[in-house]
Amino acid sequence: MTDHVRTTRRGHLATIELHRPEALNALTHEMVHGIAAALVEAEADASVATIAIVGAGERGLCAGGDVVGLRADALERGGAGARAFWRDEYALNAAIARTAKPLVAIQHGIVLGGGVGISAHASHRVVTDSTRIGFPEVTIGFVPDVGASWLLSRAPGELGTRVALTGEHVGAADAIVLGLSDAFVPHARIPDLLEALTHAPADEAIAAFAAEPPAGALAPGTALDDAFAGDALPAIVARLEAAGEEGAALAATIAKRSPTALAVALASLRRAARLPSLERALEQEYRVSAHVSLLPDFAEGIRAQLVDKDRSPRWQPARIDDVTDAMVEACFAPAPDGDLDLSGETA
């Protein structure tokens, strides 16, 4: 495999561990290849009944992709390396979704962006007390990907739209409400769960340790939820501003995000809602990622959040009202070096 992806076998369980704890297990291209190879190997091994994906360390499963490296590639090499990474990452997301054996993803701690991609498409998704799941892409001038448009466009009401546009992180109960997770197991019982998976079926093992999660904050069908409906971003912000203190706070949060990324993210979710499969959504996301990564906001957002860390991005354009339909549409055009084709990988 790779030093950052480790595999173990215990009984009938094959465990794939992301082992880059010093970087919150952020995904590199090498790690994507390692996870994909480990998945193929576990699928082919007749003695393996269940596969688990876990992250090393206490801080989280995975903080997403190594976006600082992707930014450097976009600035210095025209983004070819970033597009190669996304091709393989999105193919891995599709492979996880179609894995025939039970695949248990332990979504402990920080699970962001690409971390959701390697876990939320699994057949069994387990959250814990420490779970914080989210798609912070609009804070760095990017757009939720790794199948997020498919997942979030199918969340109850407009909760998926809210998570995509605010970039907020949610806990265990809200992750289950959103459809990103299935069951809550207290963090202290995760070792016991993994031990049970070595000999017991996944459904049985998870049921033995599952509990009611602490109360969450999200609920479909509320006035705030309804405010996120529709295709017009300025109208969404206006409805939030008129929806009381909490709505105004959400509008203020959105106002800090990249206007271009927000508009493209909204369009991505609305288009994904009409697509027939995860594979088609990933193919659309590849086009979007290829184009958005070459826009000024991608480099600027990562600079502000992760390089210089001044938290003061200078977005271009700076206002939501200045993002035109043509600018959004351009992000759905064919990718510079050819589109992603997952047609041969549909289950």
UniProtKB/TrEMBL annotation:
This protein's record includes keyword Isomerase: no
InterPro entries listed in its UniProt record: ClpP/crotonase-like_dom_sf (IPR029045), ECH_dom (IPR045004), HIBYL-CoA-H (IPR032259)
Top enzyme class: hydrolase
Alphabetically ordered keywords of this record: Hydrolase
Gene3D superfamilies attached to this UniProt entry: 2-enoyl-CoA Hydratase, Chain A, domain 1
Pfam family, one: ECH_2
Enzyme nomenclature, EC number: 3.1.2.4
UniProt catalytic activity: 3-hydroxy-2-methylpropanoyl-CoA + H2O = 3-hydroxy-2-methylpropanoate + CoA + H(+)
Statement: the UniProt record of this protein carries the keyword DNA repair: no
Domain Enoyl-CoA hydratase/isomerase: 14-332
PANTHER family reported for this sequence: 3-HYDROXYISOBUTYRYL-COA HYDROLASE, MITOCHONDRIAL (PTHR43176:SF3), 3-HYDROXYISOBUTYRYL-COA HYDROLASE-RELATED (PTHR43176)
Protein name per its UniProtKB record: 3-hydroxyisobutyryl-CoA hydrolase
